[in-house]
Amino acid sequence: MLNNDNPTNQILPQSNPQQTRMGKITSLEWLGQTIASGSWIISVFVYGLSGTGDYLQLVAASSWMLSNIAAVVSIN
Q1: From CA 70, how far away is CA 33, in angstroms rounded?
Q2: Distance of alpha carbon 42 from alpha carbon 65, whole angstroms
Q3: Which side of the chain, N or C, has fewer Cβ within a 10 Å radius?
Q4: How far is residue 30's CA from residue 71's CA, in Å, rounded to a whole number?
């Protein structure tokens, strides 16, 4: 039998606790991704920008870093 407490028999979304910016920044997932993308950006400059592939690598790493930053900034 479906959930009797829900008269429409729909699955109710689970509520997530409010996340703070500091909580996000100190999470292992966010830290790992930010360190990885930062290392990727640094490696592009260490090995040099000599071709189209290098610039694409820089764009990809920078986009990843911006995505990580946006995830923190968007928290209310």
Answers
A1: 13
A2: 12
A3: N
A4: 9
- Please state the separation of Cα 34 from the chain's center in Å: 8
Query: What distance in Å separates the CA atoms of residue 5 and residue 57, rounded to the nearest whole number?
Result: 52
Query: Among candidates 33, 3, 32, 16, which has minimal Cα distance to 75?
Result: 16
**Confidence (pLDDT) at 18:** 66
Q: Give phi and psi for 40, each to the nearest 5.
A: -65, -45
Is 48 in contact with 54 (CB distance < 8 Å)? yes
- pLDDT class of 17 with cuts at 50, 70, 90: low
pTM: 0.70
Quick check: 7 pLDDT over 50?
yes
